[in-house]
Amino acid sequence: MEGIVEGDGSGAGRYTLRPTRLSNEDILFCIDVGPESMVELKVAMSPNGRPSTRLDSIKQAILVFINAKLTINPENRFAFASLGKSASWLRKEFSSEVESAFAAFRVLSANSSSSNVDLTSLFRVAAHEAKKSRAQNRLLRVILIYCRSSIRPHHQWPVIQKLFTLDVIYLHEKPGPDNCPQEIYDSLVDAVEHVSEYEGYTLETGQLLARILFRYMCMLLSHPQQRCPQDQLDIPKPLGKKLPAADSMTTDDSITVSGKSEVQNIRN
Hints:
The chain has helices spanning 54-72, 99-106, 120-135, 181-195, 210-219; strands at 3-7, 13-17, 24-32, 40-45, 51-53, 77-83, 87-95, 138-146, 165-171, 202-205. The protein is an alpha/beta fold. Keywords: Cell cycle, Cell division, Chromatin regulator, Cytoplasm, DNA damage, DNA repair, Mitosis, Nucleus, Ubl conjugation pathway.
């Protein structure tokens, strides 16, 4: 949104925002179903008494997101896809009904095979849907949840086509001989910058804690047309900033996401 400065000629001015109407959103969730989506989380139990997996928590976090988004604006709509070697539809029709998420989740399951990941099909689908959304004065956003620590996704997409906004939540293992989460994170940041019409966020964690996923999903409630750059994002504020000895204290789930112009060191 653009701002204007009003003044009386004395040099003093008042900054105001131009009135603007935010577009209703069509949000496409794309969920990684690689074998690492079945990694068990710490201190998390599913309703059946079994340990919760990443995929279980992803489903729960998406439901929280959808209910919150519909509370903000009942005109928002959602569709669902899975990501194996490439993207495929789970629920193609965009809907404002929460039941559409349950229907998608009933056919969502992890894939035991690991393979190269091509995001081109996801971007092609998103671009096609974005044109249909624009025809209805709506805005398309893709939220990709990626879980692989050793497979760097690739794509072939022309830089001139920025028809939608891409957000990424990257859930990864700690760096090791077989894992390269830093390289994968960097490639995801590049993909977001490459395809996004508005400011897209890339959020990551290597901790097996469901609350971090839920925190990130809440951060993505922000409308793309109202966002600040990610390197200026300061919510939620870490507890350490509110304590006197902030420099010497860290919390076990604190996450620092660096600016996109810098290389982020994945600490987890």
